[in-house]
Specification:
By secondary structure, this protein is α/β, with parallel strands linked by helices. The protein has helices spanning 14-17, 20-27, 64-75, 95-101, 119-124, 141-152, 200-218, 220-226, and strands spanning 2-7, 32-37, 50-51, 61-62, 82-92, 106-111, 128-131, 185-186, 189-190. A 5-stranded parallel sheet has the order 2-1-6-5-7. Helix 7 (200-218) packs across helix 8.
Length: 227
């Protein structure tokens, strides 16, 4: 899989992409993550990529030209399954979306900034608009990093145990059950006896009951949607 990220702040990705699972996935050759500085495609000597909005108003708007140039340079080299724009008013990112994106070969991800991007980019150059939540951040870089992490961890070979992702929260519409590890007792706090019983069926039933209880308590909307 290849993910091309278009941004005016590529250094914001250095930390998240150089640690943990994402770093290992890149080193294993399971994913290629390429950062592209939109400023390098600006036509002015100051590498300016924003301007005042037509009609007035507060804030600055990212210009169409440098973004289109950057996109064009990439689409000349390969076809993209989706061109994703990270925006607060996009489709809400969730596990099913992460699952679907993880099946693609090439993704292009555009990070907006300032007040937003020229609407013509959204109308003509973007195929998908994604939000990670109903709130506004300074730019699309952090949401792009979140989405990338959620997608890449699903790729075959990325996780040490490939079945691990299948038991994550939201994969079956429920939250994950509580998990425990050694020691079996700490300061009087004990692990549930059923998990120490070695009885697979009872353990499976307990985990399902716990998932239902946690979902009902913390995310009741999930249960309503599945009914």
């Amino acid at each position: 899989m290849r993910i091309d990220i278009l941004t005016i702040f590529p250094d914001m990705f250095r930390g998240p992409f150089s640690e943990s699972i994402l770093k290992r996935a890149v080193e294993k050759g399971l994913v290629e993550i390429c950062l592209h500085d939109i400023r390098e495609f600006a036509s002015n000597k100051h590498r300016r990529v924003d301007d005042y909005p037509f009609g007035g108003g507060a804030g600055m708007v990212m210009m169409i030209e440098p973004i289109e140039r950057c996109m064009e340079s990439l689409t000349k080299e390969r076809a993209y399954d989706e061109v994703v724009f990270m925006t607060p008013d996009g489709e809400l990112f969730d596990q099913p979306m992460a699952n679907r994106l993880s099946t693609f070969n090439n993704l292009m991800v555009l990070c907006g900034h300032y007040k937003g991007i020229d609407q013509r980019i959204r109308d003509h150059l973007v195929s998908m608009e994604v939000s990670i939540g109903n709130y506004v951040l300074s730019g699309g870089e952090l949401p792009a990093a979140v989405m990338t992490d959620a997608v890449v961890r699903l790729l075959p070979g990325v996780l040490g145990d490939e079945t691990s992702a299948l038991s994550d929260s939201f994969q079956d519409g429920l939250l994950s059950p509580p998990v425990f590890t050694r020691p079996a007792e700490y300061k009087g706090w004990k692990v549930p006896d059923v998990l120490l019983s070695g009885h697979d069926r009872k353990i499976s039933e307990w985990r399902h009951e716990q998932s239902l209880e946690r979902t009902r308590r913390l995310r009741p909307g999930f249960l309503k949607n599945s009914e």
